[in-house]
Design a protein that fits this description.
Elements: E1 2-6, H1 12-24, E2 28-34, H2 37-43, E3 51-54, H3 63-67, E4 72-75, H4 84-97, E5 102-106, H5 118-128, E6 132-138, E7 140-141, H6 150-156, E8 158-161, E9 168-171, H7 173-185, H8 187-190, E10 193-197, E11 202-203, H9 205-216, E12 221-224, H10 227-236, H11 241-252, H12 265-270, H13 277-288
Parallel strand pairs: 1-2, 1-4, 2-3, 4-5, 5-6, 6-10, 7-9, 8-12
Antiparallel strand pairs: 9-11
Helix pairs in contact: 1-7, 4-5, 9-13, 10-11
Bound molecules: NADP nicotinamide-adenine-dinucleotide phosphate.
Length: 296
């Protein structure tokens, strides 16, 4: 039985990958990698066949035991970890030494065009170590609206980013998890290539806040600020240096790039249409309702 270790199991994508792998499969054993195994167990109470391994990206001592007898590693880069050589080189070496052959890495759409983002360096490392690989390259998560951007939406009815009129491709994390589970399941068919996983809409934040305002029923405004101000705004909010820098780059660089290409990979892999942004906002509008309008 193929053994798949899922890193970032308790996060946006890891949780979805586990959910869809579990739905698809009786033929692979899914192991959730977590730095706090006891609290991870509580998050997956509905998954009796899931097993757990202690794994900490920032503690090399956790690698060998977590990687033992693993066939496929689903790997992501936690947002606060941006030093690729320091964290991913030893991790990949340990994976190699443990005999892991297949890596499915959560990258980002447009990675090929930007050599400075960590995902680009991680993809290069994975290739250079001779793993069989699949790079999952999603667009911009719709769930950013209900996670990293949520506090400002609720408190000030605004979104502040250095992105100007740059367009992002909007994709539901559930769609990414489902496509990734299909790729893991049929690894040999798809190996040694990268797959954009996108929704069908490219929209800038002026368009998105307009749509949000209509669906939520109260005005949400977009403020575009310069990248330096954004970086220091994030630092003042307590965001770690590396994360603040990556957030700045991921929202600023698209201003100088062509708008994202829309891929059909999700439909090809799953036979379904991706979530529309309007449906996502409708589904999640209670969470995004500004604080003083919240009657719950
Ligand atoms: N947001 C976007 O629009 C977007 C688009 C494309 C690609 N991406 C990429 O997606 C990745 C983030 O994925 P995500 O949103 O699923 O992440 P996430 O929701 O922030 O979750 C991060 C996961 O990593 C785990 N983690 C953090 N530090 C750890 C450590 N030291 N050891 C072990 N586990 C640790 C967390 O576990 P705990 O529960 O212990 O904290 C959590 O499970 C990033 O590389 C990002 O660049 C994001």
């Amino acid at each position: 039985m193929k053994r798949v270790l899922v890193t970032g199991a308790t996060g946006n994508i890891g949780r979805e990958v586990i959910h869809f792998l579990n739905e698809l499969n009786q033929e692979c054993e899914i192991i959730a990698a977590a730095r706090d195994v006891e609290s991870a167990k509580k998050e997956f109470l509905g998954y009796p066949s899931l097993s757990f391994e202690w794994f900490d990206f920032e503690n090399r001592n956790s690698f060998a035991s977590a990687f033992e007898s693993i066939d496929t590693l689903f790997l992501l880069r936690p947002p606060h970890i941006s030093e690729v050589e320091k964290y991913f080189q030893p991790l990949l070496l340990a994976a190699k030494e443990s005999g892991i052959e297949e890596i499915v890495f959560l990258s980002v759409q447009g990675v090929e065009k930007s050599s400075i983002i960590p995902h680009n360096k991680i993809e290069a490392l994975i290739r250079s170590y001779g793993f069989k690989y699949i790079f999952v390259r999603p667009g911009y998560f719709m769930q950013n609206l209900t996670t990293t951007l949520l506090a400002e939406i609720r408190k000030n009815h605004t979104i502040t980013l250095p992105s100007g009129h740059a367009k992002f491709n909007w994709i539901d994390i559930g769609n990414i998890g489902e496509a990734t589970a299909m790729l893991i399941n049929s690894f040999p068919e798809y190996q040694n290539a990268g797959y954009d996983i996108t929704g069908t809409e490219n929209k800038d934040f002026y368009q998105v806040t307009y749509l949000m305002s209509k669906v939520i029923g109260t005005e949400i405004c977009f403020n575009s600020i310069n990248p330096l101000s954004f970086y220091f705004k994030k630092r003042n909010e307590g965001v770690q240096k590396g994360f603040a820098l990556v957030m700045t780059m991921l929202h600023f660089l698209p201003r100088f790039q062509e708008e994202p290409e829309i891929s059909e990979n999700f439909e090809k892999l799953t036979g379904k249409s991706p979530t529309r942004l309007v449906d996502f906002i409708e589904r999640e509008k209670i969470k995004m309702t500004p604080a003083q309008l919240d009657v719950s």
